[in-house]
Amino acid sequence: MNGIYYYGIAFILIWFIAIIFKGQLEKYGVDVGFPVIMWRTKRLRGLINRIANISPRFWKWFMNFGILISIFFMILMAYALIISLTTITESANVAILLPGVEMPGSPIFIPFFYGFIALITVLVVHEFSHGILARAEKINIKSIGLILFAILPGAFVEPDEDEMDKAPKSTRLRIFAAGSMANLSLALVAFLIFSAIGSYGIPGFFDESGIEIKQVVDDSPSYGVLKEGMIITAINGEEVHDSDSYLNAVSNFKPNDNATIVTNQGTFHLKLVENPNNKSLGYMGIQGEIHLETKDTLLGDQIPWVLFTFSELFKWIFFLNFAVGTFNLLPAKPLDGGHMLEDLLRYKLPENIVRTIITSLTAIFWIIIIFSILYSLFLGMS
User: What is the phi-psi region of residue 195: left when phi exceeds 0, alpha when psi lies from -120 to 50, beta otherwise?
Assistant: First the structure.
């Protein structure tokens, strides 16, 4: 069953319970009013205060740099969204990403376990950073909480609105930039860890020993001959032990060539056909990946495989933090990028013109986003 059905069942149960027990939930700080369920608490404010007080000057300096980075991505995201309209009929440009759900039209599938943990890191660092900067700027935090907008979960830190309205524009810009800068910073750290595992950790504990077949394409020359799980060790007399040797072996394939494939389960013969992506090349019809075997180490055979779990986890922490952090800088309210652009325009333009610009951009960008999502869903289901 597609994960979307589990999400649907879960959200129906959440809303059913919230409506039935609305009175009791209000005693614990839960507000229920369709389409929003909001839980507020004053806990964790002390933790945010302590972190902010470690070095208020550092947080302010870091976010001054963060404002520049945010402006760069604000422009880049706006440009990318507009340009995406030129290819909307060819591929999905905007899609809803939910861990464990294969969304129609989306080329990306996020595994539930890794995606769920990564999503938690996105919410925690984003909202805590808003709170840390607010306290570094001497703005009080009224509450912290979780929110469910229809079926979309989220988190929030609620600064004192009156103090925010009276704060200098530079202060407000730093606070608005804090969330995405935290996501981008975590994305950078996760990417470095992911790269280090792939470049040093895995090669240090594993040897490459052929290409493992992960999928055989239907109606291809390999269909009914080769099977998933086979390990290719030679092609046409050329030894295959890593990705480079495999690419060298198949690079000279031509349509109608005969290929001899040596695997751990025997030797097989294929007659190649035209490659669907390049008719001048021969095509077997398999998808594979490097087969790894553990080296002789003091850690044994099982422990090194944990590296792949960490590699996958940090890959998705990087991806989701980068994706959410940059999307949140799109210059459209209620995203942080919309609030930042509003304050930036106020430096030079009167309030009535600022409101007109922000209202227009917000409407334009959200129309593009919604249209792109619906169109990608239509393409995926058609």
Answer: alpha
